[in-house]
Amino acid sequence: MIYNKYIRYIKMRLFYRMKHLQRLSDQELLGLMRHEAHRVEKSVYNNILDKKRAYYDQKYQLINQITSILLKRDTKYADHPSIIWAGKINLAYPDIEKNFVNTYSSESGVNDDFIKINPEDYFFTRRSCRVWSKQQPSKEELEAVSERLISIGIHAPNSGNRQPWKFAVLIDKDEKEVLKGLKERHCYSAPLLIFVGVDKRLYKPAEHLENCLYIDAAAAATQMIIAAHMLGYGTCWNHLGEDLINSRTMNKESYAKLCRLKNIEHYVTPVAIIAIGMPEFIPPEPSRVNLDDVLLK
User: Fold this and answer.
1) Region of residue 278 (phi > 0: left; psi between -120 and 50: alpha; otherwise: beta)
2) What is the pLDDT of residue 6?
3) Domain that holds residue 123
4) 10 lies in a domain?
5) What's residue 116's pLDDT?
6) Is residue 63 a contact partner of residue 36, using CB atoms and an 8 Å limit?
């Protein structure tokens, strides 16, 4: 146990060296910067900034280093949302509470508009739909819907603010049928498919936390599914994990075709395919467990 912690410590020290940072891709640097800036901000909420000032000074310097590397690579990054946000935190440092939290926070309280919304109306009526109507939105409408849903997905909670998601949209029939043999017909026959994956590079140097990627993907997928339901679409969550892909040669071949088709890199871990469209009908309501079955006392 102590040996493993020591090895992990050495790996992290080497990872954060300037020479190594310069070898990281832009996406890796942005993910690392978001994570480190998030940790600096969180120190205020946990009231530990003053106690661990030297530690957070290093985070502050790291954010500046990453910003410098990215801006040298391309000045367009000056307008990148992640750099602007992290820059506000660093500009406020070390008095983050006064210059960042108090400045940019919103007042708490119940939003009157939300009172009118009954969340159970949406969550309790969602169904997994597998039969699709012959009447579907146009390709242009489906493209607009996919963009809207992905925008909602990237606002999902995620571990350490890494925002590691990767999505691919499939609308054309020949693209969707690449999944034949890997997924069932009700999946690849849906009008719109959205692939949900995660860039596992963004969890470095804490690879031991990579299991978080499945939670991060699930959070985004769930938000997209509920949003689609609110817009009147049917959806079905389809498993697309590596366990399924690696279980048969046919599955591996189908997934390899999908990767070539949609430029899914080897460092993207697949998690799900969301099927979306106008359903032929809303399936019967399935039974749900009682609260007593799941509530620990």
Assistant:
1) beta
2) 46
3) 112-277
4) yes
5) 74
6) yes
Q: Which of 129, 133, 139 is nearest to 171 (CA)?
A: 139
Residues 157 and 268 grouped into a single domain? yes
Question: What pTM, to 2 d.p., does this model score?
Answer: 0.91
* Residue 239 belongs to a domain: yes
DSSP-H helix ranges across 158-248: 173-176, 185-188, 212-230, 242-245
Pairing state between β 234-239 and 165-170: unpaired
> Within the chain, which residues score under 70 in pLDDT?
1-15, 110, 114-115, 207-208
Distance from the first to the final alpha carbon of the chain:
33
The whole-angstrom separation of Cα 146 and Cα 193 is 9
Residues 119 and 239 in one domain: yes
In a domain? residue 287 = no
Pairing status of strand 192-199 against strand 268-277:
antiparallel
pLDDT of amino acid 2: 60
Last residue in a domain, options 72, 104, 136: 104
With CA atoms as reference, report the closest residue to 162 among 111, 203, 193.
Answer: 203
Segment 159-204, tens digit of pLDDT? 999 999 999 999 999 999 999 999 999 999 999 999 999 999 999 8
